[in-house]
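Backbones bend. Our protein:
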Amino acid sequence: MKKVKQNLLRLLGNFFLKSAINLLCKSLKIEKVNQEVIDNLQQKNQNFVLAFWHSTMLLPWYVHRNQNFAALTSLSKDGDLLARQLKSWNYKVVRGSSSKGGDVALGIMVDLAKNKNSIAITPDGPRGPVRRFKAGAVVTAKKSGIPVVLVGVGFNKKRKLKSWDGFEVPKFFSRAKIVYSEPIFINSELSYDETSEIIKKCEQLLNELQDFALNL
């Protein structure tokens, strides 16, 4: 009987959390900068890798719901919560991280990308360091032959959680800005060192986009 009650409470908690997140996101006044990049790619049926910092992930996840995306989430309890939310937004969820299940997860993401799914990744997740670009997004794009689009996110009113990344929760009805880079195509024949240089450039550009997005 105790287990039944726990499962019921967990079910109710998940329902109310999803409802609260959806209400919050719907209340935001969202400005999209360079949106034509996404429109052009989608009009050409070109899937892509979308990369954004872990602390800002709420808005990109929400904006790109129901758009044939696959998402990478960690195997942690926080990853469980995120996976449930993303499934409710019609993402294909792949579980793994750089420390657990990483190689398998990356292989699945590449296969999904080759089969016309776009891919959403937080390149500094799930444990940081903050705003340091790990290889997953670039390697996925390189192996699958699709471009990377970087995303900066800003809120004019928000609360930062006391998490490793300072996760940002916008306040209801606040203004938000999402800024897209131009598509970055990665030659599949690049060497390890050349690929590492691309990763560094992506980190620099994503940080610049993030700083720009904060100017609301």
The first helix runs from residue 2 to 27.
